[in-house]
Design brief:
Distance between the termini: 12 Å
Number of helices: 12
Structural class: mainly alpha
Number of domains: 1
Largest sheet: none
Strand content: under 5%
Number of strands: 0
Helix content: over 70%
């Protein structure tokens, strides 16, 4: 149990770093090109790590293929929305909303894996939802004028929450097949297989990034992959309904970084919403 919780916290730290470099990558080359190249980097890193560390079955049964399709679709939704929201919105606004993925993930874990939450943990889930709603409402108010520049980031933030909420239980199902490290790469590959026909149909350009953008793109792939590996390994050592909220503490770390380093100054309402989200995920993990 303790090992799983520590891995959840490690995922949180890794994803907090990923949030920062994802924003820089998206603003350097655009959300969709940054996502494409970052996922390719993640596939390469995952394949190398899996070859060294994983013990896996690699037997693609019909249920495994089905879960891979679910994970690929959820991952595509999550990462398109993540990169878009970070390119066009503030970290202090988008990240607390995205953190509500932990509630959906915990709910699916209860339904799929028979896990249980205490009344207090259910209250924590409600706190997470309330905090995300507060942030969303404040983002549309006069207190956050910059949020009106590209309003698409707000639904994108909720889209990322839904995508990650479905993705995490699916990755747990896939871990025995692809391994704890290889699962991340398999999901990225499935997401890109689904993305490429859409990119061709809508004539989305995916240019080779300039040299200056590669640092952020590679770090995006690295930290996203490390976070996914940590939560997959954690889910095999402790209930995912506990590990997921700990991983979503990345919101608190990201907001603190954006405040201290990026000098983002959200309104008091946004800070209240972020505090509710953080308190809720702590209660969920108890």
């Amino acid at each position: 149990m303790l090992g799983g919780m520590l891995l959840g916290l490690s995922a949180s730290a890794s994803w907090a770093l990923a949030n920062v470099v994802v924003q820089r990558a998206g603003r350097s080359v655009g959300a969709l090109p940054a996502m494409f190249w970052a996922l390719l980097a993640g596939i390469a890193l995952s394949a190398a790590g899996s070859a060294l560390l994983d013990k896996r079955a690699l037997v693609l049964s019909a249920p495994a293929v089905g879960w891979l399709a679910v994970a690929g679709a959820a991952g595509l939704l999550a990462y398109v929305c993540l990169f878009y929201a970070f390119e066009h919105g503030r970290l202090t606004l988008a990240v607390p909303i995205m953190s509500s993925w932990a509630v959906l993930s915990a709910g699916l874990s209860i339904a799929l894996f028979g896990e249980r939450l205490s009344p207090g943990q259910l209250g924590g889930a409600g706190c997470v939802i309330a905090g995300a709603v507060v942030v969303a409402r404040q983002a549309q108010s006069r207190g956050e004028p910059s949020a009106s520049l590209r309003r698409g980031w707000l639904p994108a933030s909720f889209g990322a929450a839904v995508g990650f909420g479905v993705l995490m239980p699916a990755m747990r199902r896939l871990a025995p097949v692809f391994g704890s490290v290889g699962t991340a790469g398999a999901v990225y590959a499935a997401a890109l297989v689904l993305a490429l026909p859409l990119a061709l149909a809508f004539r989305v350009r995916l240019p080779f990034p300039p040299r200056g953008a590669w640092t952020f793109i590679l770090l995006s792939g690295l930290f996203e992959t490390l976070g996914s590996v940590c939560i997959t390994m954690g889910g095999r050592r402790a209930p995912l309904a506990i590990v997921s909220p700990l991983a979503s503490l990345a919101s608190a770390l990201t907001v603190a970084f954006a405040w201290a380093v990026l000098h983002e100054r959200p309104s008091r309402g946004v800070l209240l919403g972020a505090a509710l989200v953080s308190a809720g995920v702590v209660v969920l993990a108890l």
